[in-house]
Design goal:
Radius of gyration: 29 Å
Largest sheet: 5 strands, mixed
Number of strands: 17
Length: 528
């Protein structure tokens, strides 16, 4: 990519809510070629002119000084870190000596989103730096940030342009422009904040051909207009204004801006990520056993990831979309084009290449997903898939493995082949749970007794069976003395007429107790 944007222009476009300058010993006029993720463990040369995103680097991080010197030696345009409120004095001193510009990103801004934002500015060019934007007729088609600035100057408020998924594609950044907390969070998240969505989705906005005035308590007044191309809805444009703002002043600017934005969004729909959309659709069909999976790169490894499931359906959809974006971006950062699809609140990725590369990518993605969602996630990586016909069966195995991890409160990455035995037992227990004719009724008797008497024979017996009769392991798991475990087992044999030396009874009892176990309690410990 030929650099067209300088550091100064990039910082100005994104604004202080996203990026601020720590130091620039050689000025900010240096052109930026691309935003690149900095891997401090990778000794590969730095691309000259790159804006390095220092994920994990902070003023307290030991490797930061080394990263600054390495970036300067590689003639990078600059390094972005997150100070998170820590002192930047040492960082500034090292960077000044090395001659490297260092920028500080907002703590709330996810790194993948920052890379997307920087990439968008570099692709479409900088916004107008003038305090008053140019007339809309002179704004280059496709430069949405310049369009947002020009519209903001004409309408007298802060402008945001969004697509139909409520992702913020561009926003104005004029000097002295007043904003509220909802806009600030929207810029950081790159989408409409969840608590503001009900107002953003009001039918009166999306059914109107004219700008609609909305007043949300605690926020600035907003005028919103839907962006259309004929009957098709492409997105929306919003301007945040003072309470006494005149709609008659804003309406003409919004109408003209919507026309120009429509030209850009139509082109985006036709061209941008067309191959990615095709790969994702083909993967979805192949996992369902439909279609021939033409175009998928094989052999590849199937990764199934299960994030925490939100109760709100809108949030679930946003989480799925966020994970797809994160996965695709992470893949491109290491030079692989993955296929990704979401089904039943789970993310499925087809990772081309060898097992080592797939494992490294899966672990990095899981870490990023956990950081983005602010809670640990779980994932299963399957063996190499060589034909499309193998995908439905491996997806079924991955789903069963994710259920097993959920029931046993296990997070992180697990190899599918490492849990094959547990999958067979999990499926048998699921079958026993659904088929009364496969049950002896013994587990029900034991649990009924526990509920009436307050004992925990069911847990003790299941732990004993899982531990293959190892009393010390049972005692450690249940936090009991070994003699207490022995006494409880003898008492269970007497109460329920059990012969724990009988292998057939042990297998039957294990399956029935496991089938009755509530989800999420598979590895729960017991304290007496």
């Amino acid at each position: 990519m030929t650099a067209r944007v300088t550091l100064a222009e990039l910082v100005e476009v994104l604004g202080p809510a996203v990026l601020s300058v720590v130091c620039a010993p050689r000025g900010l006029d240096r052109p930026v070629s691309a935003p690149e993720l900095l891997d401090i463990a990778d000794p590969a040369p730095v691309e000259p002119g790159a804006l390095l995103l220092g994920i994990g680097l902070a003023p307290s991080q030991d490797g930061l000084s080394t990263a600054i010197r390495r970036a300067a030696a590689g003639q990078a345009a600059g390094l972005v870190i997150k100070s998170r409120g820590l002192s930047l004095a040492e960082v500034r001193a090292v960077a000044e000596q090395a001659g490297l510009a260092v920028l500080d990103a907002a703590a709330e801004m996810p790194w993948p989103r920052l890379q997307v934002l920087c990439g968008a500015v570099l692709r479409f060019g900088p916004a107008s730096a003038a305090g008053i934007g140019p007339p809309l007729a002179t704004v280059p088609t496709g430069d949405l940030f310049a369009l947002a600035n020009a519209t903001a100057a004409l309408a007298g408020g802060a402008v945001a342009i969004m697509d139909t998924d409520h992702v913020i594609l561009a926003y104005s950044s004029l000097d002295g422009q007043r904003i509220d907390e909802t806009r600030r969070r929207g810029i950081l998240l790159r989408r409409v904040p969840e608590d503001a969505l009900p107002y953003h989705l009001l039918a009166e906005v999306w059914n109107s051909q004219e700008p609609v005035r909305l007043a949300r308590p605690g926020d600035m007044v907003r005028f919103g207009l839907v962006i259309r191309a004929g009957p098709a809805v492409l997105g929306s444009i919003w301007v945040a204004v003072e309470d006494d703002a005149d709609l008659s002043r804003c309406a003409p600017a919004l109408h003209e801006a919507a026309k120009l934005a429509a030209l850009h969004l139509v082109r985006l729909r036709r061209q941008a990520d067309a191959d990615q959309d095709r790969r994702n659709a083909v993967l979805g069909s192949a996992l369902d056993g439909a279609g021939e999976a033409a175009g998928l790169e094989l052999p590849a490894h199937l990764l199934a990831l299960a994030p925490p499931v939100a109760a709100d359906p809108i949030q679930r959809r946003l989480t799925g979309s966020q994970l797809v974006d994160l996965a695709v971006l992470a893949g491109r950062a290491i030079g692989i084009e993955i296929a990704a699809t979401v089904a039943r609140d789970r993310l499925y990725l087809l990772l081309p290449g060898g097992h080592a590369q797939a494992t490294i990518f899966a672990r990095q993605l899981l870490d990023r997903a956990g950081a983005s969602l602010r809670t640990p996630a779980r994932a299963v990586l399957g063996p190499a898939v060589t034909t499309p016909a193998q995908l439905p069966a491996q997806r079924a195995d991955a789903d069963a493995a994710l259920d097993h991890l959920r029931d046993n409160e296990i997070t992180g990455l697990v190899e599918l082949d490492s849990v094959r035995t547990q999958l067979v037992l999990h499926r048998l227990a699921t079958l026993v749970r659904a088929r009364p004719d496969l049950r002896t009724g013994l587990a029900e008797r034991i649990r009924d007794h526990d509920e009436r008497g307050g004992a925990d024979y069911a847990r003790t017996l299941l732990t004993y069976l899982r531990a293959a009769g190892d009393i010390s392991a049972v005692a450690e798991t249940l936090h009991l003395h070994q003699n207490t475990v022995r006494q409880r087992l003898r008492r269970a044999e007497e109460l329920f007429e059990l012969n724990l030396a009988d292998p057939e009874l042990r297998l039957t009892l294990w399956l029935e107790l496991a089938a009755d176990l509530p989800p999420g309690r598979g590895r729960e410990t017991h304290t007496e």
